[in-house]
Amino acid sequence: MTNEHQSAVLEFPPAKPATMAAAMYDKLCYHTDAWDVAQDLANGIAGIVVIDTRSFEHYCAGHIPGAISLPHKEMTPERLAGLDNTLVYITYCDGIGCNGSTKGAWKLASAGLQVKELLGGLDFWRRDQHLIETGEQQGSLINAEPVACGC
After folding, report:
1. What is the mean pLDDT of residues 136-148?
2. What are phi and psi of 73, to 5 degrees?
3. CB-based burial of residue 11 (10 Å sphere; 0-12 exposed, 13-18 middle, 19+ buried)?
4. Catalytic residue positions, numbered
């Protein structure tokens, strides 16, 4: 019995292992996920700053504890000039249907700052059942009980 169907997966061959390893490394340099950010915030890692790129009203309705509000529409060269270029900034917005975090990451990087984008934004943060802060207060995850990661 022969298989008459062609593989949709194998229609395009996989990259060579070294090429794939380099591409996945690059992806990890561009993005981070909710669990990694939550771990760093809970452990008080000082080298990162999480930025909510949505409007201040959306920030107050619910944001990642420890995140600062800096809407991408307000990221002017003058405002970004005051940021510490030794830190890594993590941008997020509502989720994969919103490109506010991408616009924020672009503006930060264009200003010479180190940045990563949070995969899935606040949507994936909530799906992973991490804590949410409401109101104007920044909040904190320091010493928070971590959510178990299934990977």
Report:
1. 89
2. -70, -15
3. exposed
4. 93
